[in-house]
Amino acid sequence: MRSLSIIGLGRAGGALSLALKDDLDIRTLVFRDSPPEVIEKAFGSDRFISWQNLSSIDTDILIISTPDQEIRSSADKIATFKNLPSVALHLSGSLSSDELSALRVRGVSVGSMHPLVSLSDPVRGSKNFADAYFCLEGDEIALEAANEIVGVLGGRPFTIETSLKPFYHASAVMASGHLTALLDSAFEMLTECGLSLEKAREILFPLIDSTIANLREQPAERALTGPFARGDLDAFHRHMASFEGKVDPKIRDVYLALAARSVDLARRADNRRERLDELSKAISMAKQNAE
Question: Is residue 121 predicted with pLDDT exceeding 90?
Fold first, then answer.
């Protein structure tokens, strides 16, 4: 069983430590201010050390789970240690293994291992790794170690070119963080109809769930429903008129951007070119008027 150190015990690092607790030899858990109570209870106090007091990495694998802006400086500090791991991985989605270049110079095989799953807190997150995809890139030996860890977690690894890491991450943000912001906007809009936020969520989630189910089973252009799938220009104009005095301009702008994308999807699936062209022109005009 390979030994493991984890630096950073927030959402991702904390979730990973809990998920790997019974399957890997986790010897060192490094915290910045104080160890999270839930993780301290799970491991006991003997495996914890503060970042300030860390002076050696005495395990086979090191996982750096600090905020993105601290990964390179963390690697630079660790590279000054006498004892180093064989493999170092970080968990950032947008940064590549090049952030660990100081360790690579010291002979450490480096890589990144980004879990493509929403981690809202360590306990819930520790249960979400099974069947989740993990984006891997980096040196060959580091990739072997990352694949081993993903296998223990029951996840599904895939690799990309190092240079594409930021673009990959933007896609992930669109699918998760931006989706959350989009749905929150929809909830807010429904509260303008006199409903509580709780009721708005209750009403919209069955629609959201059915939409996701449709997307799982068919291409986006076939899963698209509603006025843009039909090329319904009148419905679009009614929507825009209803926004006056009720909708945050940011939400209106998001609506218009997604309306244009929806017309593009509708064009893939339908031959009603004339109606869709009219709708596209109306969206463009509404965008100009909003500027």
Answer: no
* Beta carbons within 8 Å of 41's beta carbon, 6+ residues apart: none
The amino acid occupying position 64 is I
For β-strands 109-116 and 133-138, DSSP reports them as antiparallel
Q: Which residues contact 190 (CB under 8 A, 6 or more apart)?
A: 200, 203, 204
CA distance 133 to 250: 32
Q: Which two tokens stand for residue 288?
A: 């100009």
Phi first, then psi: what are they for 51, rounded to 5°? Answer: -60, -40
Q: Which long-range contacts (CB under 8 A, 24 or more apart) does 197-203 make?
A: none
Do the beta carbons of residue 215 and residue 223 sit within 8 Å? Answer: yes
Provide Rg for the chain, Cα atoms.
Answer: 24
CB atoms within 10 A of CB 187: 18
pLDDT tens digits for 131-157? 999 999 999 999 999 999 999 999 999
Question: What's the pLDDT score for residue 291?
Answer: 76
What gap in Å lies between CA 105 and CA 175, rounded to an integer? 36
